[in-house]
Design a protein that fits this description.
single chain; 514 residues; alpha/beta; TIM Barrel; five-stranded mixed beta sheet; 27% helix
Length: 514
């Protein structure tokens, strides 16, 4: 609309208003026409925007820092991966992201300085090839073998206590607990941890490592064995946490909540507060061990951990839990909610547990860890080379835990052959900041991003960099690294297999000549 010509047209008309005067009337009408003109332009701009409100696909997601953990070794080597063929990576378990390898120290260092890392690496390589990770616990005390701590440690002079499982210390007992503060034991343990750290600390294929060098099964309790006092336990926990923190500086560490007392409810305990202060997170190995109302004890404790660190849950051996009348799919899901858990175990023969709990697993997958949802996105139907344009998005985290590792959303334009012609990342918005909520009540966070398809280089040729050509392109969204590499799967359809998702089209047009 040419507003000036319309205003000038009024001048030639003989409609001088006797009350307002011709000049005032012209000014009023011109202002009115200008306002109507701007309204029309804005309406057309609004029409020329693309608005998409994607629905969550409901699928299980495999993402960093969360998921189901398969007990491939559960202390005993035959539990529970031994029935899986070497080619079988349990691809049918939705949301499986980590393979958990829990073994006695003596299996890894049968002779001092000679290591059997193949025990870990053989199964690990199968899942690493599928983009999954491993987790590790090494125990020093077991209920089924005398020397979880290698016998050569005792032969070197380390002190310990003979005991009978469940009955406590007994001279001549069939089992042996090391003195967890004995200097010989600690020196040998430190040498082992240093060797393990050289191999696995900072290894991108390792999700987490347990502080498992203390207590029965590495769970940090001695009620079945040497029966340490609370004061002794606190001292042991501090020494063993410090040793692990010394060598594992780049990998997440966790410790069993049982160091605080397996059945003692509460939020603060000296042992767990010390671990948290050192950046060590909690795991609870006691989910559904006992029937209700004692299905777990430390959800209150988890409130100190989950806002900062991922919480790890392990349910009781599935078959044993069923036999005790302790198993409940609803309660398993509730434990994820109450603890704001990022990881949940697969603690049984996996396909038996899967076949009998598919609905529970599906429900847990929609809440376990984080689940980043793009609720809405709005971009212009047309972008001009060299000129900024705005994209408005609405994000939510439908999981129970933050996305601790964070990530930044990216906008990618691809041509009809799938080639990337323009990649952009908004570094002003980290998905780590998204708040969690109750089921279906995750708060929506809206954000406005500013992108430029190509910048005009101010030289006589007016070159655009990068050299993006005008045309129509597909719009893809992703979340990942600052450089635009996707890293987090989203519950969106039409993915490209690299964690980017197609949402629509945009036209890129020539910039007006100067």
């Amino acid at each position: 609309m040419n507003t000036e010509s319309h205003c000038a047209g009024w001048k030639s008309r003989g409609i001088a208003d006797r009350k307002l005067g011709a000049t005032a009337l012209r000014r009023l009408l011109c202002a009115l026409l200008l306002a109507l003109s701007w309204m029309g332009l804005n309406a057309r701009a609004e029409v020329q925007r693309v608005v998409v409100r994607p629905a969550d696909t409901g699928e299980a997601l495999v993402n960093p820092g969360m998921g189901w953990t398969l007990h491939f070794y559960s202390n005993m080597i035959r539990n529970y991966g031994s029935k899986l063929e070497p080619w079988d990576t349990l691809d049918d378990w939705p949301g499986l992201s980590v393979v958990y390898l829990r073994v006695p120290w003596s299996f890894l260092e049968p002779k001092e300085g000679e290591f059997n890392w193949s025990l870990f690496d053989t199964p690990a390589q199968r899942w690493i090839a599928k983009g999954k990770k491993i987790a590790i616990r090494v125990s020093c005390s077991e209920s089924w073998m005398r020397y979880a701590t290698p016998q050569w440690v005792q032969d070197a002079g380390a002190k310990g206590i003979e005991f009978e499982f469940g009955k406590g210390p007994r001279p001549g007992g069939p089992l042996w607990d090391p003195d967890y503060l004995d200097p010989v034991f600690l020196r040998k343990l430190e040498n082992f941890l240093a060797a393990m750290a050289r191999r696995y600390d900072g290894n991108p294929n390792v999700a987490f490592i347990d502080v498992g060098s203390f207590g029965m099964w590495g769970e940090g309790h001695t009620g079945f064995s040497s029966r340490l006092s609370e004061e002794q336990t606190l001292e042991v926990v501090k020494r063993h946490v410090d040793l692990h923190v010394k060598y594992f500086t780049r990998t997440l560490l966790c410790i069993s909540d049982d160091v605080a007392g397996a059945t003692k409810p509460g939020r603060h305990f000296p042992t767990m507060d010390y671990a948290l202060a050192k950046g060590v997170t909690m795991r609870d190995d006691s989910i559904l061990v006992q029937p209700p109302p004692n299905s777990w004890y430390h959800a209150e404790m988890a409130q100190e951990f989950w806002p900062r660190l991922p919480v790890i849950l392990e349910h009781e051996h599935y078959g044993s839990s069923k036999q005790r009348g302790a198993w409940s799919g609803d309660l398993l899901l509730k434990s994820v909610e109450d603890y704001h858990a990022s990881y949940m175990s697969i603690h049984w023969w996996p396909r038996e547990e899967l076949n009998e709990n598919r609905l529970t697993i599906e429900r847990i997958n929609r809440r376990l860890g984080y689940r980043l949802q793009l609720r809405e996105i709005d971009w212009p139907a047309e972008a001009t080379l060299g000129q900024p344009f705005l994209v408005e998005t609405g994000w939510a985290n439908a999981g129970v835990a933050p996305c601790y590792g964070g990530g930044f959303w990216g906008l990618t334009l691809k041509d009809e052959k799938g080639g990337i012609v323009s990649a952009h990342v908004d570094e002003t918005f980290d998905v780590k900041s998204l708040k969690v909520g109750a089921p279906d009540q995750a708060p929506l966070e809206k954000h406005q991003s500013r992108f430029v398809v190509a910048f005009r280089h101010e030289d006589p040729r007016g070159v655009f960099v990068p050299n993006t050509k005008p045309g129509s392109y597909d719009v893809w969204v992703s979340v990942g690294l600052r450089d635009g590499t996707p890293a987090i799967a989203l519950p969106l359809p039409d993915g490209d297999g690299q964690k980017r998702y197609r949402l629509g089209r945009i036209r890129v047009v020539e910039a007006p000549s100067k």
